[in-house]
């Protein structure tokens, strides 16, 4: 159910939803890279919120000793898109696993279903968005979501 929305509100709302959990896990949220002005995009706010929450919660879980969750946005007016960067200072994802993180039922967690990031991928696909992941073991993980901002579709 896509509609014209201020994606900044969706991002801030999703960060507010995890703030208590982040604090209790000694994770600082850095949202300095989120613009103050509205950024319009044609999105399903509930689905994009679900994407963000899933990535944030995975990041918090990866920062067992605490750390920083950084969220920033870059706008590309030439290509009518925005890039949302979500970075954590967690343990990182092993190189052998990085190519499988979006595969359904693939998990390295003892109690995981392996569906979280597969669902993230499907939702982003439905939004004509790209998602890239980079990770360095012992340093952290970075998700970049490139989302069209045009209000078509």
Describe this entry's structure for a reader:
- This protein is of the alpha+beta class and 153 residues long.
- It contains four helices and seven strands.
- The chain has helices at 7-24, 45-62, 95-98, 116-126, and strands spanning 3-6, 27-33, 40-43, 67-76, 81-88, 130-136, 140-148.
- The chain has a five-stranded mixed beta sheet with strand order 2-4-5-7-6, covered by helices on one side.
- Helix 1 (7-24) runs parallel beside helix 2 (45-62) and helix 2 runs antiparallel to helix 4 (116-126).
- The longest helix is centred in the first third of the chain and has 18 residues, at 7-24.
- The chain starts with a strand and ends in a 5-residue tail after the last strand.
Topology:
Blueprint (H helix, E strand, L loop, with lengths): L2 E4 H18 L2 E7 L6 E4 L1 H18 L4 E10 L4 E8 L6 H4 L17 H11 L3 E7 L3 E9 L5
Parallel strand pairs: 2-4
Antiparallel strand pairs: 1-3, 4-5, 5-7, 6-7
Give me the side-by-side strand order of the main sheet. Answer: 2-4-5-7-6
Beginning-to-end CA distance, first to last residue: 10 Å
What is the chains' assembly state? single chain
Task: Output the number of helix runs.
Answer: 4
* Rg calculated over all Cα atoms: 15 Å
How would you characterize the largest beta sheet?
5 strands, mixed
Characterize the overall form.
globular
Query: Could you state the order of secondary-structure elements as H and E?
Result: EHEEHEEHHEE
Any low-confidence stretches, pLDDT <50, length ≥5? none
> What is the structural class?
alpha+beta
Classify the beta-strand content into a percent band. 25-35%
Secondary structure: number of strands: 7
Mean pLDDT: 90
Helix content: 25-40%
